[in-house]
Amino acid sequence: xxxxxxxxxxxxxxxxxxxxxxxxxxxxxxxxxxxxxxxxxxxxxxxxxxxxxxxxxxxxxxxxxxxxxxxxxxx
Length: 75
Fold this sequence. Notes:
By secondary structure, this protein is an all-alpha fold. Helix content is about 50%, strand content about 0%.
């Protein structure tokens, strides 16, 4: 298998085809391409958009809670 192209080259190679497919949104599901980047290797199961957003919200709330629990630095 060839290695994947770097970030700007991926769009350069597929950009024109993606642009043309987006002109016809009712038919583009058959030909559309959505690059996901290197993180695709960590995707193990399908998730709905709702699940992804809920996880982001939960992680945000956890981070805010941790930050709020920190003691302020005194000079």
